[in-house]
Design goal:
Shape: globular
Number of helices: 7
Helix content: 40-55%
Number of strands: 6
Order of helices and strands: HHEHHEEHEEHEH
């Protein structure tokens, strides 16, 4: 019943959302947070340039330590801006703003988080962990479907949708220390940043 629902919600969101968002969800666990729903959100995709080459030439323990440092910095900043860390994939972080709790300014918060992640990484980079200066970030905004997805054995709360793929693609265009944002984001947030326009790109599977 109610206790099981609260435990499930806490287990699903506990590690990945900030305490304010978690307490909001816990206050109304029966609101259907885990059910599929369509919503507007902003996606931040970050990963390390040249990570495969780096990891092949280093001891596994060192690789894990460096990677965890990057993940810790990214997670702290994402939570600070009310984002949700959806998942870690290899050397990538996928974070979502505007989900599970919708916020009007999800786009601004996503961009602010991206800028602060790069600043923090730069600040903490050292000879020992120069990987932190090799992170590229892609951002896209649009409609996603969010919900608990999986099988009886394993389910996870995640987002799917076109803008997740676009954020991942834009991330592949970002060089070390760079942030590449989609058209929609740059139109909306012109007042926040100076952008340098890139050439038009053909994104796989889109007109």
């Amino acid at each position: 019943g109610e206790l099981y629902k609260q435990a499930l919600v806490k287990e699903t969101f506990g590690k990945y959302v900030g305490s304010d968002v978690l307490s909001m969800i816990m206050r109304s666990p029966d609101k259907g947070w885990l059910k599929g729903r369509k919503t507007e959100a902003s996606i931040l995709f970050a990963d390390i340039r040249g990570f495969t080459g780096y990891s092949e030439s280093k001891e596994p323990e060192e690789v894990v330590e460096r990677l965890n440092e990057f993940f810790a910095i990214a997670t702290d900043v994402v939570l600070k801006y009310d984002g949700y860390v959806d998942k870690f994939i290899g050397d990538s972080v996928l974070a979502v703003f505007g989900v599970p709790v919708y916020e009007e300014d999800h786009c601004e918060k996503c961009l602010e988080a991206a800028i602060e992640i790069q600043q923090e990484l730069n600040k903490r980079a050292s000879g020992k962990n120069s990987l932190l200066q090799r992170v590229g970030i892609g951002i896209a905004s649009g409609v996603v479907v969010a919900g608990n997805i999986g099988s009886q054995v394993k389910t996870e709360y995640t987002v799917i949708g076109d803008c997740v793929n676009v954020a991942s693609y834009l991330n592949s265009l970002a060089g070390p220390g760079e942030i590449v944002i989609g058209n929609g984001v740059s139109k909306k947030l012109r007042h926040m940043v100076n952008v340098e326009q890139l050439e038009s790109q053909k994104v796989k599977g889109r007109e």
